[in-house]
Design goal:
single chain, 250 residues, mainly alpha, three-stranded antiparallel beta sheet, 11 helices, 6 strands, 9% strand, globular
Length: 250
């Protein structure tokens, strides 16, 4: 077996999620496979796996610190275990790892709930903050192009707060008791071009966000009553962004 194949096999064995065969795609004969699989009984191997898992858990805890801090200990531990056992925590790109982990958490929280709001708030803040330094808005001239299309800003977000947003955020960040969950929701807009990264969204902005689940031509948005100045303002803060022409679907 080549040295590179051996190193690859060891790396996969350490990082492999439970229930998978990390050696499946490698060209190993029976003796080589048996030798590598036998390492799992070795104390040094088990120590390495433990260190790797601890590192993965630590990265996940940093990625979802706010959300994890308000969850019951048993749920928090279960989410971290499920994430690492599925192979999470091994990416060298922290922002992408954090985005994926918060998505993972969000899919396992009740809706509506302050816990889900905290998760989406943390995710949207991370996303907007990542682009805030050096953010340069595009000019609005492309709105005049016949096939100009727009989409949601990749570093923007819209989060529903089921209660008074400032009170919820203060309770989350100060680790205080959360207020009751309200049936009425307030939409908070996150964008890299906003001072402070967030503010309350208008009903028109919230409606626009819902329209842009897929790219839409500006001409289509104009027919729905969105003026050029409205869209230009959203471009300036990064809430929406241009995409290449999308054909005749919009």
């Amino acid at each position: 077996m080549a040295l590179l194949d051996y190193q690859t096999a060891l790396g996969r064995l350490v990082r492999a999620p439970d229930g998978t065969d990390p050696l499946r795609s490698l060209r190993l004969d029976e003796a080589e496979r048996s030798s590598i699989e036998g390492l799992q009984a070795n104390a040094g191997y088990r120590f390495t796996v433990g260190v790797q898992r601890s590192w993965c858990v630590g990265r996940a805890e940093r990625a979802g610190y706010l959300t994890l801090s308000i969850l019951p200990e048993d749920l928090r531990r279960r989410l971290l275990d499920d994430w690492t056992e599925a192979g999470g925590g091994t990416s060298s790109f922290f922002a992408a790892e954090a985005e994926a982990f918060l998505d993972f958490i969000a899919g396992r929280l009740p809706h509506p709930s302050h816990e889900l709001t905290a998760c989406r708030f943390e995710q949207a803040t991370l996303r907007a903050n990542q682009q805030a330094i050096g953010f340069t808005p595009p000019g609005p001239d492309r709105l005049q192009a016949p096939r100009c299309a727009l989409r949601r800003g990749r570093h923007a977000g819209l989060v529903a707060f089921h209660g008074e947003p400032h009170a919820i955020i203060e309770a989350l960040t100060q680790h205080q008791a959360l207020p009751p969950v309200s049936a009425a929701a307030t939409a908070i807009l996150f964008a890299p071009g906003l001072e402070g990264l967030w503010r309350v969204a208008s009903s028109r902005e919230a409606a626009l966000w819902e329209k842009l689940t897929m790219p839409v031509r500006f001409t289509s948005l104009a027919r729905d009553g969105y003026r050029r100045d409205d869209i230009a303002a959203m471009l300036r803060i990064g809430f929406v962004e241009f995409v290449t022409p999308i054909g005749d679907r919009a």
